[in-house]
Batch of 2 targets.
Target 1
Amino acid sequence: MFATLSDRLTATFKSLRGKGRLTEADVDATVREIRRALLDADVALPVVREFTSRIRERATGAEVQQNLNPAQQVVKIVNEELVAILGGETRRLRFSKNPPTVIMLAGLQGAGKTTLAGKLGRHLKQNGNRPLLVACDLQRPNAVNQLQITGERAGVDVFAPEPGNGVGDPVSVARQGLEHARHHHYDVVVVDTAGRTGVDAEMMQQAIDIRAAVTPDEVLFVLDAMVGQDAVATAEAFRDGVGFDGVVLTKLDGDARGGAALSVRQVTGQPVMFASTGEKLDDFELFHPDRMASRILDMGDVLSLIEQAEKAFDADQAQAMAAKFAADEDFTLDDFLQQLNAVRNMGSLKKMLGMLPGMAQMRQQLDAFDEREFDRIEAMVRSMTPLERRQPRIMNGSRRARVAAGCGQSTSAVNDMLERFGQAQKMMRSLRNGMAGGTGIPGMP
Ligand code: GDP
């Protein structure tokens, strides 16, 4: 997400390091670099202009703080301005006082609406709501079916028109869906609508009609972040057509240059509320302008990381581990495996590591990281006997060869794994002795 932009900005700030004060020439050069980086990331020109003029004004102004060096000051200013163009405060869903709350999705075909409906449904369900997805995309062949499959995966009910019951009128399906939700006490209704590959009058009219029929509490405009400069024109067309209250950016996982994210709020006046970062149901997050700015500036998004960790780690497991720690018991391969699995449950490791500060410089290593490594380690540990897992020092040559054969790996892979485990064990010991270091993830240097 925003990898190139992030790299460019970080490089710009780096060139300011070590400077005692900023000359006008420094500010000029920095602003020019920021401007180029933003334009290359497809940020809309008016947004770039306003952004850079704010940076220039503040960097040359009297905003000098005693405790920050010039490079830090510029980062601080850019960070604050980024948060501002991303919308400032996190905008959360507004729920109706008279349920069901109705959320309508609008956007071009392929933007990711149907996928999003599933993600949103699951998110709502995890937060204690009882959502219903309503399939009003009757244009795209298979869209209804796709929503049914997505809903099933997400564990969320779907209201779909009866097959064969005429071609179907999306407006009446939307109405029936809402009626069904009232009847069966669903408290949130997510209406998936049709999109075309380009904006056209008929599609927009249909969206307007559905809006009139179900009077949604929130209309969310779903925007594919990969479309670059076109994003702005599309967003404007939807703003002037059906209108919307918030934006969902999808496909932020791709090599999206991110311009859409940075422009859309400023251009349409509506906030980005959610980000979709992959095809899986879990690849979905609330859009926090401050955290996103931190990520772009490679200051790390430690808060998101902690939230994900909280979801993944089971409290009982953590307590058992803590008790073990306190009792001075040694860290075994079973513990190692358990921790590895907990880390794996947090989602893509690459994505997680990307949220840590300073990761921009490590991007290449990060891209080369193969997540299947986890599976290999797990297979090896599972091929060991319980005694071997507790006392890995008994692993001589023939035991190593047996484990390798047992899980179809090479002996050197087993050696590597044991070596890594040895490091993790050492780290656990030093942690116990109060000398924390490294990434804090056992087995990861
Ligand atoms: P719709 O026409 O707006 O309903 O779009 P779909 O939900 O069918 O999505 C179109 C394609 O984009 C599908 O292949 C999805 O799997 C994919 N997709 C949706 N959201 C994301 C995302 O956040 N990241 C990636 N990489 N793919 C996505």
Target 2
Amino acid sequence: MGFILAAVGSAVGLGNIWRFPFITGQYGGSSFLITYLAFVALIGFPAILVEFVIGRRTDRNPVGALRELGSGVWSYAGWLFVVTGFIILSYYSVVAGWFLRYTLIGITEGYTLTDPTEANALFGTVSTGLDTLLFHAVFMLLVVGIIAAGVRRGIELSVKVMVPAILVMLVGLAAYGFTLDGAAAAYGYYLSPDFGTITANWTEILPAAAGQAFFTLSLGMGVMITYASYLGEDRNLAADAGIIATIDTLIAVLVGFVVFPVLFTVGIEPGTGGAGAIFVSLTSAFASVPGGRIIGIVFFGMVGIAALSSAISILEVLVSYLIDELGVARVPASAALGAAVFLLGVPVTLDLVFLNLYDLLADGILLVLGSLLLALFVGWVIPDVGRAELRKGIADVGDLDGAWIWAVRIPIVIVVIVSLYLGIVDY
Ligand code: PFF
Ligand code: NA
């Protein structure tokens, strides 16, 4: 139970609530959605199992795990994970700070702006400047404090409360979205894919959907390896992976049912919403619904907690690396890494250009590269170890392990190499 909660806590976060709606808007709504859903099922799910089998097999941190299972070169993948974690956490924390700020705005002033131009202006002040830096610092302090103290119980409890609460609030907000004037247009935009659009724009949609699938499921930097190292031999890895992918996907898809009806109603073209899409649409929704102030405070606060449990999983990979490989103690390791991550995030608080740059690099290139190395490693270097590990704890396995290793060897590798190439060109 603790494992599922921690893994769901890592998966559910800003990737679902902030990144998913704005990337979906940017890449054309339904065409992106269907590609993304296909990738979660066909690539994300097998890729979770890749990390699970490595972690449970070795009981080690990602770097140690790869060194134990493979020789020399594979341990360098661990370095890649560390670099990726640094970059992702640095901007993740800045964006999480925005959510803290919006929570505070609700408490002190309430949400009053229904005019999208004003809501946009508010987003502008929240997303850059000295206050932004301050909230980034507060968020990193929370992450470092929890990791330094090594608390696991608090995380599990917060996930137990937060995930159901977010689900319930999203369903309520989606029902509100249904009542809006723009709902019909939004559903058309979000739900009826046009395959002509996908084929015409596949060089953009494919890497974006693959990157989002890896990002949202916390794949490609060893988080799931680390968490699976705590798993017992009797756990059914496939069932656990299914639960995690399902909850994570459900939350993201629901967010679309909130954001797009609001954007269409207030007259914002979804492709132009950018990083502020979720904030502009939600503040306008909270300004209009009865009880919107309370709902808003709780919602933004819950997302802050969701972001915290994801950020913790990232810092834990970095810290466990320093502890295991360099023998640094937990508290100084957490403090030093936290300070470095904070500094790396400073440019993001000055100009959103850096947000795009970091995000494109981490999501379009580094996570995809990490997933590629892991898939190649398990699929081609240690396939028998992987299959044996997957079979444990599954009563009626059939040829699940055979189908899985096939998916890991060829389809994942192809999609990831193509995405990586397009991602690098784009960058
Ligand atoms: N999966 C997290 C989210 O959707 O917000 C973000 C994330 C966590 C990405 C951990 C990568 C990672 F290793
Ligand atoms: Na996610």
